[in-house]
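Changelog-adjacent note: as of this version, every example in the card shows the full chain rather than a window. The one below runs 1835 residues end to end.
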Amino acid sequence: MTVSSDTTAEISLGWSIQDWIDFHKSSSSQASLRLLESLLDSQNVAPVDNAWISLISKENLLHQFQILKSRENKETLPLYGVPIAVKDNIDVRGLPTTAACPSFAYEPSKDSKVVELLRNAGAIIVGKTNLDQFATGLVGTRSPYGKTPCAFSKEHVSGGSSAGSASVVARGIVPIALGTDTAGSGRVPAALNNLIGLKPTKGVFSCQGVVPACKSLDCVSIFALNLSDAERCFRIMCQPDPDNDEYSRPYVSNPLKKFSSNVTIAIPKNIPWYGETKNPVLFSNAVENLSRTGANVIEIDFEPLLELARCLYEGTWVAERYQAIQSFLDSKPPKESLDPTVISIIEGAKKYSAVDCFSFEYKRQGILQKVRRLLESVDVLCVPTCPLNPTMQQVADEPVLVNSRQGTWTNFVNLADLAALAVPAGFRDDGLPNGITLIGKKFTDYALLELANRYFQNIFPNGSRTYGTFTSSSVKPANDQLVGPDYDPSTSIKLAVVGAHLKGLPLHWQLEKVNATYLCTTKTSKAYQLFALPKNGPVLKPGLRRVQDSNGSQIELEVYSVPKELFGAFISMVPEPLGIGSVELESGEWIKSFICEESGYKAKGTVDITKYGGFRAYFEMLKKKESQKKKLFDTVLIANRGEIAVRIIKTLKKLGIRSVAVYSDPDKYSQHVTDADVSVPLHGTTAAQTYLDMNKIIDAAKQTNAQAIIPGYGFLSENADFSDACTSAGITFVGPSGDIIRGLGLKHSARQIAQKAGVPLVPGSLLITSVEEAKKVAAELEYPVMVKSTAGGGGIGLQKVDSEEDIEHIFETVKHQGETFFGDAGVFLERFIENARHVEVQLMGDGFGKAIALGERDCSLQRRNQKVIEETPAPNLPEKTRLALRKAAESLGSLLNYKCAGTVEFIYDEKKDEFYFLEVNTRLQVEHPITEMVTGLDLVEWMIRIAANDAPDFDSTKVEVNGVSMEARLYAENPLKNFRPSPGLLVDVKFPDWARVDTWVKKGTNISPEYDPTLAKIIVHGKDRDDAISKLNQALEETKVYGCITNIDYLKSIITSDFFAKAKVSTNILNSYQYEPTAIEITLPGAHTSIQDYPGRVGYWRIGVPPSGPMDAYSFRLANRIVGNDYRTPAIEVTLTGPSIVFHCETVIAITGGTALCTLDGQEIPQHKPVEVKRGSTLSIGKLTSGCRAYLGIRGGIDVPKYLGSYSTFTLGNVGGYNGRVLKLGDVLFLPSNEENKSVECLPQNIPQSLIPQISETKEWRIGVTCGPHGSPDFFKPESIEEFFSEKWKVHYNSNRFGVRLIGPKPKWARSNGGEGGMHPSNTHDYVYSLGAINFTGDEPVIITCDGPSLGGFVCQAVVPEAELWKVGQVKPGDSIQFVPLSYESSRSLKESQDVAIKSLDGTKLRRLDSVSILPSFETPILAQMEKVNELSPKVVYRQAGDRYVLVEYGDNEMNFNISYRIECLISLVKKNKTIGIVEMSQGVRSVLIEFDGYKVTQKELLKVLVAYETEIQFDENWKITSNIIRLPMAFEDSKTLACVQRYQETIRSSAPWLPNNVDFIANVNGISRNEVYDMLYSARFMVLGLGDVFLGSPCAVPLDPRHRFLGSKYNPSRTYTERGAVGIGGMYMCIYAANSPGGYQLVGRTIPIWDKLCLAASSEVPWLMNPFDQVEFYPVSEEDLDKMTEDCDNGVYKVNIEKSVFDHQEYLRWINANKDSITAFQEGQLGERAEEFAKLIQNANSELKESVTVKPDEEEDFPEGAEIVYSEYSGRFWKSIASVGDVIEAGQGLLIIEAMKAEMIISAPKSGKIIKICHGNGDMVDSGDIVAVIETLA
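Full-length structure tokens:
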């Protein structure tokens, strides 16, 4: 619908809410405003309409409309542009509240809560309506503003007290009006005006801002023309408000949606009509039509309810009315302004005493007991809304009596805590309407609306119901349609669950994952059986089967609603043989549910559990049965770490056994430590010092009273001496005896035992003691042979030897490994069987001669004899052979009286169908989970039970293998670097939650090089092998581990290989497997090479998190566009000198930006073009000859995790990109696989020459800037601004991604100092900088770039706009810059042309900086200004701060908490309104930086909105705000803090007033002692005013006590390094450094880290600790304690002391006033001579600095020219050198060995030459990229 300029409000008369919304959506903003203005004009005409008390002004309407228009989501708002009226006892800001009493009138400072909610929903308030004075009456005639007549008759009353609201809705002026209802005022007017009157459940609408009538009973009510509008407003207004309304309460979470079809409705047995004859007819007809809905209508005696009703006016509740206006009445208001009837009623309260009050309350409670009994079997009450349609004259004749009769059926409702809905009953024969009221129990509001709808369909058939006065029109069917409570069947699917998905059971999390809503618990129809299916995994599954009624039962189930869009995700988690079908409920309704395939309930082991009536009862029976089992052990110690320790603890918890973990120093924070009930430190680092130290383990068991020790696998699990030691100590070893371990654990003796058992053996030797003997035996066996450590395991201590030349080295290596890892150097040899498969049998023995095989596993896929992927059952294995294998294992176990778990390993020759004994592992195997998955057994539980001599009966145990299970081992190793160990800190970890994942790692886990590299075992179960392969592939695709390199890509390549699909496996197949990684490798890192994305990390500038991203975004975007990537795809930024990169996969690349020699395999390649790269090619990007940065785009991007929404690297914060750092030598970057690559957008394309950035060849640049935020004449003199643009600025050598420093003319300041902001004229109170701001740090400008700080205290003269920032990214030290002024419009034009040109690759669309764009002169940065209104509404200055920012500055240059609060109010308003175009609000001390999206809102449009918002912000000095009190430990002047100061003195500035000690400086300039500085720090409470003061959530905080605000100064120049956690004082401000960063505050101590990078702490939802208005306190701790706390913080276990609180400004002002004398004295002491001395001190220091700055550079070691630096490619422990300083070596010759994760890695010489330095000694830790040696190359 559209409207012309001459349209009047008449067209909108009678519109519903939806009509209004449809109009606004289909009309222009101008048309919408015109119609609203027309409506307002139509009410401002003579004669005066008594329904209104006040109407808004045109200005107010425009203001409301402007704010509505600014909202981004306005068209989705439920009341978008809908005009509403409000009863004049409800506060509306901008209109007086009178309560119909002129002398009572006041101007509210804010909206009532309900009005606020309606405005938030898009409503426009048009006026306040008339009422019975002080809402006392049901007639609508008790008002000095006139009597409001019925909408149908001027002679009849409208009903009260909400008369005006009913009138304006009935006449269609507005579709909705608010009333209030204490005793019927929201219902009686509805009946008399043909309306819907909704009186909600008491307390669900806030009464904040409502003039009370009876506060304990008051309800805000809704008048509407239709049910839909009433429900819509109910949903909006139904919000708890406990902070502002004492009677507020939340709505129930699952309210009744509808009454049953045979709902029981009670009507009064006796109805007094007081002589009325027409209304009984209407009521009787209404009741009859209710019956036709199927309702069961009964008559009851309403006397208890009527007795309750009489209490309202005959009891002490009238005293509430008196209390509400007592102070007003005491002020002796003019009598003529008071309604005599109302006042006489209210003053009747004076006769009651406090005793009477309690007496009547007791009486009410007694009556309520009768009412509860009366309503026990009743769902709904139906009563006449009011018995009469009184005339004005009748009311005048009997004002109290008529009023009293009208409340007959309304007065009791709120006293009884009931909900009510008044609805029309039709018209009398005299044309007047009346109605009925449906009354339900509390929280039945939705059901009452639905019942009313049913009633309407009967009483007004075929859509014949009229509304209000519109008797010739009918309500549209859509306008009586209801949504109901939040569960919406149109967007959800009802699902019945019957098994492990029930509440509290193991799979309930799956329902939570898909956001399912619980609806009810019910039963099936009598046609079902329930089965418990065979358990083939950790979770017991049910099978629901439909049968004939005579054979079936009712089964209990729970019903949920699942969002349709997530239903597929839920189905994907349903395991076979279950599926989704339908089930019939006892109500007859059919809904979705689980069904079971016939194979499920017919499978062996299926149990019919129908008799239990439901799965939960059966589950509880099993739990009870389980708990009655024999008690095994009270406490068990796990002598292990990692995933196996975690897995064992799960079983111990299930069995109710107390678990004890032991841990090394590196494992202090590991999961097994936190999961266990008790944890004991072993105090050591290496395995030998900890997990292999038998004495420590046994001591820990004794210390914790552990009765048993379970060793897992590895470490001491197969150590016979340990088993014996446990036995000697009286501790049960969960495993076989020492003798058995000794016999089987040593592989040579195990062969002898197997031989006795008749098991076929591979030809081999006994133990060999020398290399010579090894050579002899190997020759006899014939090569190839296997060299094996007799004590080895897990792939460690066995290697293949192909020829005699290798035997010596490998023999010594295996011997060393056996001794190092297993404490046994014994070695023997076996013949190597070509193409053998490794098949093993899981064995359990009871220790008394019985043994049982639990199936076999194929573990043939091995690399370096380390298993990679295992599966069960073994594929391609004849059943006869399978049984023979199992039988051989059982025989061996029985022969030995084997106890607990063991694995008998065989070599299987598939070609010959023969197997040979390999060895017995006398422990639990790594791959045991796949056996558990197919058998449903818990092998750890079996071990525990067997160890406790409570073994299962093997004779009766039937082990059935169901389906296929596979396991892939995820290792921290680099498959591109020969699987070298890859330790590191895991920054992101995601595993599929539908698969079984046995792991010990999570985000934040530190992978140590000390131990096995296993991260996780990913286990799946399928119905067959193909299904298992598919699931394992899916699980691997969903697995994401970042922070260290893993073998995940390698595993995926194997799983998807042809040989694996066909099960063509052998133990050596991976030796020849051609793994083709999807990765690139850094072989030379370049000067500063990092991963970035565009637009970077948006939305966290206010926190101090810079966006990072590319310095030259234009070139970066071109690179992605050329290769066909989405613009957000991560790519590589190169600075000055580029990297060399080996591509291990085929792809397409593009290099853009600065010019450099780029070669591919030595051949030069072009820039700015797509280039195809072959697998194995090497890309080299040389030194940039023009520009500073180049960009490498790779098709599909790079697989790195997002951090705070971006892939970009922020090196100072150590976040984003690749491990939060620049790329180093040896880094391997994986590229997304085809399955997960969503970055590719189009095909690669060439770009036109005209799009290539024009990088200066002359080193001279012209860069456009916008003026401001700070300019002339308030900060700079005009000539200084002119000079800024006329002079050329040289780029300083100290320029980088944090900022580009400039050298040029000294600014001419317009002021002598920065006032409160600081001593220098460049200083100001901390505010948030714009990206690209030219920031004057003193007299030296620096351009804030993408990694720069956000919050600071220096003025900014100009800002480089977004389109020109690319140039800043390309300037080099020594280049010169000429700045030119641009307007906002020109800046936006440049930006938009860039965007269009890049997207279209059309060079003609690109606009470059030219003379047309440049302003003739600089402009004022002040865009607008609002003058001061009062102290709480100060002057506001809107400053231009670039082309995407506006800086809003409040008041004078002083810190003021009221200003801070005003800023907070503005931020909250923008957030609430979701204001169009605003990206982020960043708070400073007295300003807020607003970032906006120029595509959504222009600068001018934004200014209009911001100005409008200012008038919305109203508060007084008594404001309160949520504030956390954060108490932090601080070590005063700890060594690390003092080291920062010393480093500064040694490297930056040797002398300054604050040197050598910062605390002494603070004490001296303030004339106090060091102790007083100390006392201040630990007694002050600091208020946080902003974040990012340096970086990453660092607070800018001020002491609340003015006496703690000392004189002071920041460092000049700043420090280049500040320790993380350092606490600084800068004048009146305090800062905590969140990262190792530059800084300038005076350092006083150190606290814990305040940036939780990975959100590891349980309380961390975001990385930053503080928010504005939080309060910080410090308490003293020692440095030693602080270091411990810091370590705990870094591992997420430290709990910060945070107290939830409220900062009460009124209370604070009282405290200030109570201490004003001492505060004044302190402040005066800082002025005068002291201030002058301080200023002079700083001035002299700055002068000295200019004259001479002593900078001592860091010492650098001098190596000969051409020396070759050798870097480590991995992290580990330096084991030993294999060459010495002075040795002459050849290229490729080994230099040294690094030991990491049980592997020895040789670092070889890259070139020939003489070793001149080895940088490490034995035992040193070495990080990847560290220098390890230096070689002097020889000619």
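Structural remarks: DSSP finds 47 helices and 84 strands in the chain.
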